[in-house]
Amino acid sequence: MDNKIPVTVIIMTKNEEKNISKCLKSVSAFDEIFVVDSGSTDQTIQIAEELGAKVIHFNWNGQYPKKKQWCLDNLPFKHTYVLYVDADEEVSSNLVKEIRDLFGKGNLSDGYFVGFDYVFMNKVLKYGHRMYKLVLFNRHKGKFLDYDDLSASNMWEVEGHYQPQIDGHTGVLTNSMIHFDHDSLFDYFAKHNRYSDWEAVVRSNGAISNLNESQIYIRTLQKKLFNRLPMKWAVAFLHCYVLKLGFLDGAAGFHYAFARSVYYWQIGIKISELRKVREGT
Fold first, then answer.
1. Nearest alpha carbon to residue 127 among 223, 262, 256, 259
2. 62 phi, psi to nearest 5 deg
3. How many helices (H) and strands (E) does the chain have?
4. 180 vs 116: CA distance, rounded Å
């Protein structure tokens, strides 16, 4: 393996020519890399193949399993552990070293959460809301579950914000991944408008309260508390900008916190709209 890390990387794409090159270069230390593409019409596939990735074509049928679980079910893996990386993400050099050391020592947990350094308005945010995702896990111990969300408007083929369920022990890695989407702010807001359609559905039908996914313990408590709070848009802003010191990131920190607030405001009014439709008013 030429000292490669014995992990299979999975990158899911659709028209990601702006992001895919830096993403693939950041995971070059891993032994196997799949790019699972959904009909890209730009140069995504060509770039991926030139950089040595194995390109797999995916066509969603509108049902479960969605793309992440489909990968677990169908890819011809060489390795037991998988690392999911979005095309607009990079694995930092420090995280690569940490994972290499982890596999060198052995005695692995079944899954690992990783924190993210978020780039917004071309600034790496050091404060504010911090996202953790369970992206590295034993594929025999992990599964992305089915949820009641297929009725959401603008539904997409990837398991959204869901974490996999891990049958075993999980840990948290020290170093971070980098989330840096080179699309414009127009695309950022369009994406979150779509996400808010999904979240409005899973909040209104109760699915978000019954997620059986694996989570960091404190995150589970935080989510349960947040789900019960009124005026989530205001809470989201205060948590990100004040409690988590987002104001120390300057203008970018304010705009990021405000964008999170707007996201939860969108969810709130979309839930009200769904309720009126159900009640026929």
1. 256
2. 85, 5
3. 8, 11
4. 10
What is the reported pTM?
A: 0.90
pLDDT in tens, 215-269: 665 566 666 676 777 899 999 999 999 999 999 999 999 999 999 999 999 999 9
Nearest 5°: phi and psi at 71?
A: -60, -45
Please tell me the distance from the alpha carbon of residue 161 to that of residue 198, in angstroms, as a whole number. Answer: 10
How far apart are the C-alpha atoms of 70 and 75, rounded to whole Å? 8
pLDDT above 60 for 1: no
CA angle 209, 215, 221 (to 5 degrees): 60
Q: What is the DSSP string of 80-141?
A: SEEEE--TTEEE-HHHHHHHHHHHHH----SEEEEEEEEEETTEE--SS---EEEEEEETTT
User: CA dist 189 to 17, 76, 231, 232, 266, Å?
Assistant: 20, 36, 21, 18, 11
Distance, in Å, from the CA atom of 24 to the CA atom of 16, rounded to the nearest integer, reads: 11
Say if CB 119 and CB 125 are below 8 A apart: yes
- Beta carbons within 10 angstroms of residue 186's beta carbon: 8
| Domain architecture of the chain: domains with CATH | 5-279 (3.90.550)
Contacts of 145 (CB under 8 A, 6+ apart): 162, 164, 165, 211, 212, 213
CA dihedral 78→83→87→91, nearest 10 degrees, is: -120
Instruction: Give me the percent of the chain exceeding a pLDDT of 70.
Output: 93
Residues 36-45 pLDDT 10s: 999 999 999 9
Is the Cβ–Cβ distance between 11 and 34 less than 8 Å? yes
